[in-house]
Amino acid sequence: MEWRQQSSVSCKDAFTEAQRWIEEVTGKSFGCSDFRSALENGVLLCDLINQLKPGIIKRMNRLSTPIAGLDNVNVFLKACGKLGLNESQLFHSGDLQDLSNRVTLRRDESQRRLKNVLITIYWLGRKAQLDTFYSGPQLNFKAFEGLLGLALSKVSCFICPFFKTI
């Protein structure tokens, strides 16, 4: 996909906007400046989707273990599917894992995985904006143009199979 070739500089706005939106919707702070670390336990993501669609996630795992975090991320991704996001719009549950201590890690692999997370946040934000029952903070889609590429940002002119007319 075209977005994978975008530079990390063009994604800075998307990271900033995603954090702002998540914090405003949930009413909770990231608690750190590292995007991945703030989301890796899945609690903020579960809180986010429960604010968008109350009760869609019945319970979260509050233990501070990697397995609990993976469980929460999987629950979040499953809830995204229930809201109508398709598999191509979802990141992989392993995309939020800390890869900093892996010797065989490709230089851009960690950044690529975080871009996958941003893609999901983008689509979730679009879904929220189109939900007539949601009246909370809106995601600024223009901040994602550098990440998604110009072609995808023009999707607002068309009828998407997953969303109402935009």
Automatic annotation (TrEMBL):
The residues covered by the Calponin-homology (CH) domain are: 12-129
> Pfam family of this protein, just one?
CH
Spell out the molecular function terms from Gene Ontology.
actin binding
Q: Which PANTHER family match?
A: LIM DOMAIN 7B, LIM DOMAIN ONLY PROTEIN 7
Q: Which domain of life is it from?
A: Eukaryota
Which organism is this entry from? Poecilia reticulata (Guppy)
Q: Which SMART domains match?
A: CH
Official protein name in the record: Calponin-homology (CH) domain-containing protein
Q: Known InterPro entries for this protein? A: Calponin/LIMCH1, CH_dom, CH_dom_sf, LMO-7, SM22_calponin
A single GO BP term for this record reads:
regulation of cell adhesion
